[in-house]
């Protein structure tokens, strides 16, 4: 009888230990509610972003639940974190602990082989391939091409006009730059077809992943399929051109990626990875750059002293150029004040509100357990408006970036940090500086509407930022 009791106890001990462990774990999960399955708090966050009070929405959660809380975003249980410690935790954690996974909607629309979804050796391999095109040494070759696109854009859409809407035009400009630099796709019918599908695709990047015909998510998925089909056609054409020695591996992103070979002459990056990462770079270059340039134009219209300083710097560069001569990499290096203006714009109006990671194991953070498989949602912009980090945070002050080493680590990370820093950072910088150079030296402007904007999910002026423009005397 005693042996039976002992045997039963031995069998029950593992079960009891498991129950105790689960009870402890569940008690240490952050406070909050997961809400309705799939939907959770997604609609609340999206409404807050659209109404331009997402930060207040976050602050209300913090007051209610504390600095760490659980919720359900875009179909997955999620833990919200924010602040300098949270940013450091995200960007300094090893990939065995956190996976750089985006929301389900982003993953399905951009594809699961883009660099934001990859970890470990796959991430290193694909990132290295992308950087072979996007590193400064390579991008130096494309400054002239970007210069030509910007000047052509201004001649077509700004010259002779009395009023323009800035955001739609900046999106047109960045789209044309992307088509030219990434795909070697020149103006014409194919580029126009590309634009319509591309705009539809990005509308559902942050959406509840319910794949029904009437949803934004479904429309974006169908647009993504069309984009991928077009990119495959472009890639196959370029592959033939490379085999016939009719193309250079330096002429655009796709030929560059196709031309990267391993020791056995095998392709280092797969065709699926080329397509998915082309889509990622395309979205990043299109949305982020157009938003930053738009808000710089908006701020220069209401900050005359800042505009005067930018104009002085750019006119000095223009005076050093011969008539019609393009800007060079060296010219961009002289635009230090203009870039500080861009950084301050990014601080006040960050294009990226926050980001997501996926836990690869149970993680302890700030006294709580974040279970394996959950999302972590961190809000980068909260530190950028923290008065203890940036005094008078609502004031537009480019001098904050005269000495960037004075800014505490992980408090201003508009392009990410560490091994996850945005690979397109330098390209965005070139696009911004070249565009601002020609805009301020060729035009004057004033706002025609209010300064309201919303997030969708990036900040966008509610009316597209209409401005009245008139020509400035070109420096010769």
UniProtKB/TrEMBL annotation:
Residues annotated as transmembrane: none
Signal peptide segment: 1-17
Classification via InterPro entries: Cyt_P450, Cyt_P450_CS, Cyt_P450_E_grp-I, Cyt_P450_sf
Membrane topology note: Single-pass membrane protein
UniProt KW NAD keyword: no
Pfam families attached to this UniProt entry: p450 (PF00067)
Keywords (A to Z) from UniProt: Heme, Iron, Membrane, Metal-binding, Monooxygenase, Oxidoreductase, Signal, Transmembrane, Transmembrane helix
CDD domains: CYP90-like
Top-rank taxon: Eukaryota
Main localization of the protein described in the UniProt heading: membrane
UniProt KW Magnesium keyword: no
Subcellular location: Membrane
Family membership: Belongs to the cytochrome P450 family.
Protein name: Uncharacterized protein
UniProt source species: Stylosanthes scabra
Biological classification of the source: Eukaryota, Viridiplantae, Streptophyta, Embryophyta, Tracheophyta
């Amino acid at each position: 009888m005693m042996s039976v009791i002992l045997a039963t106890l031995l069998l029950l001990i593992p079960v009891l230990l498991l129950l105790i462990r689960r009870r402890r774990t569940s008690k240490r999960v952050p406070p909050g509610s997961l809400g309705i399955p799939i939907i959770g708090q997604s609609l609340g966050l999206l409404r807050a972003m659209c109404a331009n009070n997402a930060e207040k929405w976050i602050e209300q959660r913090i007051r209610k639940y504390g600095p760490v809380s659980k919720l359900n975003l875009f179909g997955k249980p999620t833990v919200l974190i924010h602040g300098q410690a949270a940013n450091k935790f995200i960007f300094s954690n090893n990939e065995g602990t956190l996976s750089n996974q985006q929301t389900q909607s982003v993953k399905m629309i951009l594809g699961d082989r883009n660099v934001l979804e990859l970890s470990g050796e796959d991430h290193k391999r694909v990132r290295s391939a992308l950087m072979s095109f996007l590193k400064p040494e390579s991008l130096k070759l494309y400054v002239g091409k970007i210069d030509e696109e910007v000047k052509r854009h201004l001649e077509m859409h700004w010259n002779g006009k009395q009023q323009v809407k800035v955001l739609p035009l900046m999106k047109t400009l960045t789209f044309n730059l992307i088509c030219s630099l990434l795909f070697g796709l020149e103006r014409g019918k194919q580029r126009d077809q590309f634009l319509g599908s591309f705009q539809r695709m990005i509308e559902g990047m942050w959406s509840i992943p319910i794949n029904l015909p009437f949803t934004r998510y479904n429309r974006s998925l169908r647009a993504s399929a069309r984009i991928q089909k077009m990119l495959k056609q472009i890639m196959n054409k370029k592959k033939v051109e490379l085999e016939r020695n009719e193309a250079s591996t330096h002429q655009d992103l796709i030929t560059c990626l196709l031309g990267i070979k391993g020791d056995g002459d095998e392709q280092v990056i797969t065709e699926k990875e080329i397509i998915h990462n082309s889509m990622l770079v395309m979205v990043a270059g299109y949305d982020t750059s157009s938003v930053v340039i738009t808000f710089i134009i908006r701020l220069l219209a209401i900050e005359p002293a800042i505009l005067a300083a930018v104009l002085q710097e750019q006119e000095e560069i223009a005076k050093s150029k011969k008539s019609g001569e393009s800007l060079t990499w060296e010219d961009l290096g002289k635009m230090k004040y203009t870039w500080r203006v861009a950084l301050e714009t990014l601080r006040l109006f960050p294009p990226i509100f926050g980001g997501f990671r996926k836990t690869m194991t149970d993680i302890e953070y700030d006294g709580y357990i974040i279970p394996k498989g959950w999302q972590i949602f961190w809000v980068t912009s909260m530190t950028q408006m923290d008065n203890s980090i940036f005094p008078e945070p609502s004031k537009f002050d480019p001098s904050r970036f005269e000495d960037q080493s004075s800014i505490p680590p992980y408090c201003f990370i508009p392009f990410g940090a560490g091994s996850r820093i945005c690979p397109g950072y330098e390209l965005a910088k070139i696009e911004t500086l070249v565009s601002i150079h020609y805009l301020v030296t060729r035009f004057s402007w004033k706002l025609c509407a209010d300064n309201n904007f919303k997030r969708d999910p990036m900040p966008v002026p509610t009316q597209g930022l209409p401005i009245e423009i008139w020509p400035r005397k070109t420096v010769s």
